[in-house]
Amino acid sequence: MNILPRFLFCVVLLGACTGTGESGDEEQAASGFDSLFPKHIDVFGVSVRGTAGTPDDKMLHAANVMAEYLDNDADGVPDNALVVQAMQANDATLIMTIDFAELDEIFSEIGVDGMPEGVLQDQNAAETRPGGAADGVFDASFEEVLHLITHAGYAYAYPDAFGESPGTSLANAMDKARGGRFMQIPDPYPEGAWYSYDDQTCDYGCMAAEYIYWGLTSLLGAQDFPGRLEQIDNEWRLNTPELFEEHDPALFALLTDPQYALPTRLPIGNYTAGELAFSGDP
Q1: pLDDT attached to residue 16
Q2: Considering the chain, what is the average pLDDT of its residues?
Q3: What pairing do the DSSP bridges indicate for beta strands 2-3 and 9-11?
Q4: What is the DSSP string of 168-205?
Q5: pLDDT of residue 9
Q6: Domain limits at 148?
Q7: Nearest of 210, 220, 205 to residue 69 by alpha carbon
Q8: For 182-221, how does the pLDDT look when each residue is reduced to its tens digit (9 = 90+)?
Q9: Are 72 and 281 in contact, with CB atoms under 8 Å apart?
Q10: Residue 278: inside a domain, yes or no?
């Protein structure tokens, strides 16, 4: 199992994030997962799954944010087919619960072995806040959905550019942002570092996944609202598009390179190219 931001992980044989077909224990795990996460929304072949108690509106919001990230021009077709294909191949799934406590209960009950094969990212209803910036709070959809897209999609579709190991374009930019290449979190970070995430459970790959999240959401304006910088400046200090472009030119160039078709507009939770719906009865 490969632990990444929060509960983002690969549940697979031999550490590879690709499907190998289900049989025996795998079928049992899938069956148990389906009963725990009965709600399902399909977004371009990528699953959003929720527990019975997860509010429908919160799931639909997260699914709409995913659709907007993947089809940012809202023409009904994903902007980068390679990324979506990688997510599908990795069985990328956003799993939603009522809150962290419910997720903890599920893991206590079934453990990691009870989860199906694939790349899973957690998000909960309590942190899903449509229009939260107006109230001075952050909508976690912008982060957790993006983690799934970049880790299960971009990192596999473009490993030299967006891979999460040392030496990729993303990692080289991160090394500049952190003031050096650190496989473990330095104490303290060098003076002048503008990315200083300090979660000791986060390894180098996890750091890269968090870094691209900070960069892209700052570029799109998600981090630019009153009081937000004070909430995040212990780990990220370029919260506006202007600050980001000026002080992190390496990541800015990567994220705005048209060949990768990354989003240029922040999702609002309203995918206009088609109505997303639950599969079966929610």
Answers
A1: 36
A2: 90
A3: antiparallel
A4: SHHHHHHHHHHTS--SS--SSPPTT-SB----TT--HH
A5: 56
A6: 2-260
A7: 220
A8: 999 999 999 999 999 999 999 999 999 999 999 999 999 9
A9: no
A10: no
Domain assignment present for residue 282? The answer is no
- pLDDT given for residue 29 in this prediction: 62
DSSP three-state, residue 47: strand
Q: How much is the pLDDT for 17?
A: 44
Cα-based distances in Å from 195 to 58, 154, 165, 212, 238:
30, 21, 17, 11, 8
Which pLDDT band, with edges at 50, 70 and 90, does 71 fall under? very high
Residue recorded with tokens 């370029």: 238
- Cα distance between residue 107 and residue 86, in whole Å: 26
How many Cβ atoms from other residues are within 10 Å of residue 40's Cβ?
A: 17
3-state secondary structure of 3: strand
Is residue 178 assigned to a domain? Answer: yes
User: Which of 174-202 are b and which e, b meaning 16 or more Cβ less than 10 Å from the residue's Cβ?
Assistant: bbbbbbeeeeebeeebeeebbbbbeeeeb
Query: Which two three-digit tokens encode residue 51?
Result: 């527990």
- 265 within a domain of the structure (yes/no): no
Tokens coding 196: 């200083």
What is the reported pTM? 0.91
Q: Total structural domains in the chain? A: 1
